């Protein structure tokens, strides 16, 4: 069974006094239902489970009065002995809550009532054209947590890397001393495996159990196909084909020298006015993440982001690699990266930073200056260069030489190296990106 970070968040929520109903948001198949049910069974005497996607009839319970006693009575009648409601020891799980907007509205009443805990999960919550919006979103009556596919640290746990090893890596980062060679090589190998497997629970479990990459690829491509099916099934009619075109253009966008997202690459002659909503749909569904260009390298990053200039990455690097041509996985595991090398490792770092909850930014100037990522690290604006090979860091060095102009005094180079430092530039192995947590 895969260990997930969401477990601790659920425990923290349960230990909060006067807790509000909880909503777990995340892309399809990232493990929401499994984690919530596992937590519920371990922590509650009674678990009442409704899946609105599998059983649309359950929505009728919420069609009339939303008084808690009425809902409880209806559920008891509908589910019989499966629905035991005891104050303080029952959790009601509303799976795929976006299928029943009235159930979302009812959270407000459960919050006021306070006898039962409620957890809702949703994969297309707030996605334009998907279902009906609730009459009233229970603002202030719910706690929302975003859930992602497994991150690199969770992948390490799944592959038998225990916390003492991760603690050792943290110490090496803090002291800026090299990682012992044997561990360094093992971590590099695990990172390449993570690049191709990614974090979808089904793909990770299959990899851990069988090590059969063809089976992993089949699972990933099935997931990508199911996402495309969602686009066709749930989007508004005029958007269906546009959303799919946007999604399918991502590998092409990232293989360009200038990786800025261009609507003309989606379809010749197309514009933002025609396709912006389609791209937003995919982002709202949790499938992609945007990385915004900064007008200036200065904190606060959010305040300096250019809304209409951005790159687009897949939230999960394994799904990105599965969208590339056959044989790419084999090449990556062998360390041969060819044409896609920059895109693959950039998407990897976007995956790592994104799953940490970081917003993504980069810096590009028409003069040719370009830095892959810019983050807040240890209270400072920090440049992050991602190098698939030994590539140069000309732009970074230029920026560091002019602190009065660019307001930056530190940079990190991630690549096929061990830990080291030259003046303002900290060099780290790619696998250490997940440790750059200090804001």
From TrEMBL:
Residues in AAA domain copies: 18-156
Alphabetically ordered keywords of this record: ATP-binding, Nucleotide-binding
Any GO MF annotation of the entry: ATP binding
InterPro entries with a match to the protein in the record: AAA_14 (IPR041682), DUF4143 (IPR025420), P-loop_NTPase (IPR027417)
Keyword Cytoplasm attributed: no
DUF4143 domain segment(s): 228-389
Superkingdom of origin: Bacteria
SUPFAM superfamilies: P-loop containing nucleoside triphosphate hydrolases (SSF52540)
Protein name per the record: ATP-binding protein
Organism of provenance: Eisenbergiella porci
Phylogenetic lineage: Bacteria, Bacillati, Bacillota, Clostridia, Lachnospirales
């Amino acid at each position: 069974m895969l260990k997930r970070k969401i477990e601790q968040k659920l425990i923290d929520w349960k230990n909060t006094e006067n807790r509000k109903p909880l909503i777990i948001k995340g892309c399809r198949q990232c493990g929401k239902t499994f984690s919530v049910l596992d937590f519920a069974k371990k922590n509650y005497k009674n678990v009442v489970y409704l899946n609105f996607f599998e059983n649309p009839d359950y929505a009728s319970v919420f069609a009339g009065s939303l008084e808690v006693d009425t809902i409880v009575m209806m559920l008891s009648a509908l589910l019989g002995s499966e629905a035991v409601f005891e104050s303080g020891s029952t959790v009601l799980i509303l799976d795929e809550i976006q299928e029943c907007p009235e159930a979302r509205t009812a959270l407000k009443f459960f919050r006021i009532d306070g006898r039962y805990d409620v957890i809702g999960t949703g994969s297309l919550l707030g996605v334009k054209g998907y279902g009906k919006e609730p009459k009233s979103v229970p603002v202030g009556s719910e706690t929302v947590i975003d859930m992602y596919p497994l991150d690199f640290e969770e992948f390490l746990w799944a592959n038998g890397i225990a916390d003492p090893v991760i603690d050792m890596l943290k110490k090496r980062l803090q002291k800026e001393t090299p990682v012992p060679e044997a561990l360094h090589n093992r971590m590099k190998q695990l990172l390449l495996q993570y690049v191709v497997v990614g974090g979808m629970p089904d793909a990770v479990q299959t990899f851990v159990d069988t090590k059969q990459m063809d089976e992993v690829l089949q699972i990933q491509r099935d997931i990508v196909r199911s996402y495309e099916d969602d686009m066709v099934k749930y989007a508004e009619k005029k958007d269906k084909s546009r959303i799919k075109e946007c999604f399918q253009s991502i590998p092409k966008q990232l293989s360009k020298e200038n990786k800025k997202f261009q609507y003309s690459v989606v379809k010749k002659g197309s514009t933002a006015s025609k396709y912006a909503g389609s791209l937003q749909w995919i982002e709202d569904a949790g499938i992609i993440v945007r990385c915004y260009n900064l007008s200036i390298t200065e904190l606060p990053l959010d305040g300096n982001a250019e809304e209409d200039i951005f790159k687009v990455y897949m939230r999960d690097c394994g799904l990105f690699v599965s969208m590339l041509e056959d044989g790419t996985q084999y090449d990556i595991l062998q360390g041969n990266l060819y044409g896609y090398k920059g895109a693959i490792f950039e998407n990897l770092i976007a995956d790592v930073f994104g799953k940490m909850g970081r917003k993504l930014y980069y810096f590009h100037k028409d003069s040719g200056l370009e830095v892959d990522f810019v983050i807040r690290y240890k209270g400072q604006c920090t440049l992050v260069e991602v190098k698939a090979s030994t590539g140069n860091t000309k732009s970074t060095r230029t920026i560091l030489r002019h602190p009065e102009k660019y307001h930056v005094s530190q940079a990190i180079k991630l690549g096929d190296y061990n830990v080291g430092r030259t003046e303002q530039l900290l060099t780290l192995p790619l696998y250490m990106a997940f440790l750059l947590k200090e804001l």
